[in-house]
Design brief:
This protein has helices at 8-18, 22-29, 33-41, 57-74; strands at 19-21, 54-56. The protein is mainly α. It has a single domain, classed as Multidrug-efflux Transporter Regulator, Chain: A, Domain 2, CATH 1.10.1660. The protein has a two-stranded antiparallel sheet with strand order 1-2. It is elongated and about 50 Å long. The N and C termini lie far apart (38 Å). This is DNA-binding protein. One of its GO terms (molecular function) is DNA binding.
Length: 79
């Protein structure tokens, strides 16, 4: 996917809306920061940038759906 921006303000707006920090990612996924690090280390979550770790919101939301399905399957008593 290719993006084009008319101004720096448009680019910054896009980045603010579509990039998440490790803390924000942990909050969206409902896991700890350590678990986010483990997901990255095992290749289950790909950061957009390594230091500091920054994630694309769309990737995090896809991972959230996957984790919710796994929780339903392996932790049915939580519902």
């Amino acid at each position: 996917m290719k993006y084009q921006f008319d101004s720096d303000a448009d680019l910054l707006s896009f980045l603010n809306e579509n990039l998440l920090s490790t803390i924000e990612t942990a909050e969206v996924l409902g896991v700890s920061k350590v678990r986010v690090g483990h997901l990255v280390k095992t290749g289950k979550l790909q950061p957009a940038k390594d230091q500091p770790k920054i994630f694309l919101k769309s990737v995090v939301l896809d991972k959230k759906k996957e984790l919710e399905e796994l929780r339903k399957k392996y932790r049915p008593y939580d519902e």
